Amino acid sequence: MKHAQHLLNLPRLAAFVAICEEGSLSRASQRLGIAQPALSTMIKKIEYDLGVSVLTRHARGSVPTPAGRVLLKSAYEMLGIAEATLDEIGTVNDDPEGEVAIGLPAATSMVLAVPLIKHLRKSLPKVSLRVVETFSGYLWSWLQDGNIDVAVTFDRVSIPEIVCQPLCREDLFLIGNSKLLINAPDTITPDNLYKFPLILPSRIHGIRGKAEAFAASGKGLDIRMEIDASTHLVKLIAAGEGFGLLAKCAVTDELAQNTVRAIPLAPCLSRQVSLGIRRIKIQNPVVARVVEEMKLVSTDLIRSGTWPTS
């Protein structure tokens, strides 16, 4: 390896990250405001220092090589440490302050959003929060694109751009109008799920794939409609327009009012709930504090049963 000290050249690492995220030199050039020849030179210098190629160029753009993927993970960490250092210096001897964008899946938001916001406003009064709510599939894309800093995710693992930290496992149930489920069996199996016409989100979202995998050994699924709007999905289910495969947290109010019923699946169908954090932000002192507070609030809600996981 040649001139190893140049590996900590932050502008070159930032250029490399931008090319990997954008998928091409031209789009990275527009994003950074740096001419393409200059970007190309920066990558060549990285490759000279490392003695290996870090990008594969093809007609549609550029993708990291195996060595490049290793570098990408480290680049996120080094750039994150640099950003965190500047932020920490700027807030030394002060309460943490800054802006943090949090993404919550619609189901989890029902039990987590209000307690979390109240807690963060009290514990981190100088932190400006931006909270967005949507299906988890969209949140994962927004994390990758850098539009949010941290999000609750389902069944995800760490990748170069994102670190996943587990929170809990959460069981899924057949959810339906209580009157329609008066004579329903005690458990729903792959062999009888087809009897319940479903309202499901589209395939971009993990729960759709889990439903299809669950039913694969039985008679399949009867999908009445697709809808990527959680509030309307729950309202339609409660109104008896179809059934859903959901966690109890998505319908806590409806369960309390006995407008819907939750029937267990056999075999049990569950999902891993984690916090996904942009790797470049994980060393940021403000984001790190918000993540720790999110873990505390989530743990308290789960222990108290306010966030039902089974």
TrEMBL record:
It comes from the Bacteria. The keyword Transcription regulation applies. GO terms for biological process: regulation of DNA-templated transcription initiation. Belongs to the LysR transcriptional regulatory family. This is HTH lysR-type domain-containing protein. SUPFAM superfamilies: Periplasmic binding protein-like II, Winged helix' DNA-binding domain. GO terms for molecular function: DNA binding; DNA-binding transcription factor activity. Residues 8-65 form the HTH lysR-type domain. Pfam families: HTH_1, LysR_substrate. Keywords: Activator, DNA-binding, Transcription, Transcription regulation. It comes from Thalassospira profundimaris. The lineage of its organism: Bacteria, Pseudomonadati, Pseudomonadota, Alphaproteobacteria, Rhodospirillales. InterPro entries: LysR_HTH_N, LysR_subst-bd, WH-like_DNA-bd_sf, WH_DNA-bd_sf. The keyword Lyase does not apply.
